[in-house]
Write a structure and sequence with these properties.
Distance between the termini: 51 Å
Number of strands: 20
CATH architecture of the largest domain: 3-Layer(aba) Sandwich
Helix content: 25-40%
Shape: elongated
Largest sheet: 10 strands, mixed
CATH superfamily of the largest domain: Zn peptidases
CATH class of the largest domain: Alpha Beta
């Protein structure tokens, strides 16, 4: 019996030695020259900042590059040609929308395209001959509802009107709008201050709400009461003449006017809604199949987003070398290390490059809705987002952030509590590689990158990052500032931790929430 135990011990030791040797060989594949070569293309001007809609279609070029590399490594496509189509919808302002004042006979008295939809339908909608009621600053609302009527609400308060404070208080405005909407109007027109000669508030909100909005096409947007910001001239024309709206507000402030006023003889026509376009968006997905007949049905996901910000208003390129070219090519290099393993891991490895992180983490959201391996079989997700920088004195601009970029030995390692053992495994390999993990990031960082969509399904996650630096989301985030030795260390750490997870037998898989 003793002899048998000795033999088993020797066999386990030999297996461990060969496994360690295989890991060491695979680690040698992770090379700074390769990282630099890949990043020099991914973060080049040629790709115009890897954002959808640029003339060069740089995001598609990046996707092609990732897919070609996966094919070269012999990885299995996780979707046709490695591309998981993401149904992405872009909605933007429709310049043909209008607000029109008509008389009792339906004759047009005034028509304007100057309007900002703060809330409302994406699909075009036309409204004709709708009766209107003014409610002043919304301080005295009737007990009855506004069924079938359009309500005009003055932007701001009596105080801001009196003191000429042209300021947008988002919380206050939303509270007033919710009170109005509880009375069930058909539409709310929020009218700017008649003394705001430069249209400060209108211009400000036009910039905020005039931007293109992106969402998954499958996401249902709830029907809600439209809220439209308009200029005072609309209210003037409803009341029958120039400056009558200001007179109404002044009389209200002076106590000479009831706030509620039903408009007589004139009504409103509106065309609202947005223009929508389905975009050619895609995740890139490649798979290394596991070696164990049963465990290969489970997977470990290695993920990064490969999109960035595109061009600035002057046509300068946001190269995004660190954000997130660094994570993108680090996953590429890890894929090569995995492909060179003599003994493949027990579980399958899914290499996932997601799109649309900068637009709202849309690619990772889509993947978790359409995973190539069921989420209940996904044992962990490793997300690499900005892993290529080392602290410089200029980075002290982030001194007030808990995520200021680390020195050469530091790394942020954010985990959730879905499987506490994962943090222990990470700590072990950090010690082996002389890295110092920072695990103190506030819980809010669980929702600030693509790992969020795995975290919300109770899947164990690790988010590796080197931190925020002075070039974050600036055109100065270029390849020349990347520390490739640091990237190599991050790749080695992630490879070793993910490999152990892929080979562990004692993982309690959490089923996703329903």
């Amino acid at each position: 019996m003793v002899q048998r135990k000795i033999i088993i011990t020797i066999q386990v030791l030999i297996s461990f030695i060969f496994s360690a040797f295989a890991q060491h060989t695979a680690l040698q594949v992770i090379d700074t020259a390769d990282l630099k070569e890949h990043l020099s293309f991914i973060a080049s001007d040629e790709l115009q900042g890897r954002r959808m809609g640029t003339e060069a279609e740089g995001l598609n070029k990046a996707a092609d590059y990732l897919a070609e590399n996966a094919a070269r490594l012999g990885l299995t496509p996780g979707a046709p040609d490695y591309f998981q189509k993401v149904d992405l919808l872009a909605t933007k302002k429709d310049e043909t929308n209008f607000v029109e004042v008509v008389d009792a006979k339906g004759k047009s008295k005034f028509k304007a395209h100057s309007m900002v939809e703060l809330r409302g339908p994406d699909a075009p909608k036309s409204i004709t001959n709708m009766p209107a009621i003014l409610v002043g600053f919304g301080e005295q609302l009737p007990d009855k509802d506004f069924d079938g009527k359009l309500v005009l609400l003055a932007q701001g308060t009596e105080k801001s009107f009196t003191n000429k404070l042209f300021h947008w208080n988002n919380r206050m405005e939303n509270e007033r709008l919710e009170a109005i909407k509880s009375k069930n109007p058909e539409v709310v027109l929020l009218v700017t201050d008649p003394d705001d000669k430069t249209n400060k508030i209108y211009q400000q909100l036009s910039r905020w709400y005039g931007r293109t909005r992106y969402q998954l096409a499958s996401e249902n947007t709830k029907e809600e009461i439209p809220v439209i910001l308009v200029l005072p001239e609309v209210a003037d024309q409803l009341l029958g003449g120039k400056r009558k709206y200001k007179k109404y507000l002044q009389n209200l402030v002076d106590g000479e006017q009831e706030s509620l006023m039903e408009v007589q003889k004139r009504s409103l026509n509106l065309k609202i809604g947005k223009k929508s376009e389905v975009l050619d968006a895609k995740n890139v997905v490649a798979v290394l199949e596991g070696a164990d007949p049963e465990l290969k049905k489970e997977c470990v996901v290695l993920m990064s987003h490969y999109d960035h910000l595109g061009l600035d208003e002057n046509g300068e390129v946001y190269n995004g070398a660190d954000d997130n070219g660094s994570g993108t090519v680090t996953i590429m290099e890890m894929a090569e290390a995995y492909a060179n393993l003599k003994e493949k891991p027990k579980r399958s490895i899914v290499f996932l490059w997601v799109t649309g992180e900068e637009l709202g983490m849309l690619g990772s959201n889509y993947y978790t809705q359409h995973p190539i391996v069921p989420l209940e079989k996904t044992v962990a997700c490793f997300n690499l987002d900005m892993v290529g920088r080392v602290f410089e004195e200029r980075d002290t601009v982030w001194n007030k952030s808990p995520k200021r970029v680390k020195d050469f030995d530091g790394i942020f390692a954010l985990t959730n509590d879905a499987w506490p053992e994962l943090a222990k495994i990470n700590q072990k390999y950090c010690e082996q590689l002389d890295l110092i993990p920072d695990t103190t990031l506030p819980a809010q960082f669980l929702s600030t990158s693509d790992h969020y969509h795995f975290h919300k399904h109770s899947i164990p996650i690790v988010n590796y990052a080197t931190g925020y630096h002075a070039d974050y989301h600036r055109i100065s985030d270029k390849v020349e500032r990347i520390n490739f030795e640091k990237m190599k260390r991050v790749a080695e750490l992630c490879f070793l931790v993910s490999l152990e997870v892929a080979n562990r037998d004692d993982i309690d898989i959490h089923k996703p929430e329903q």
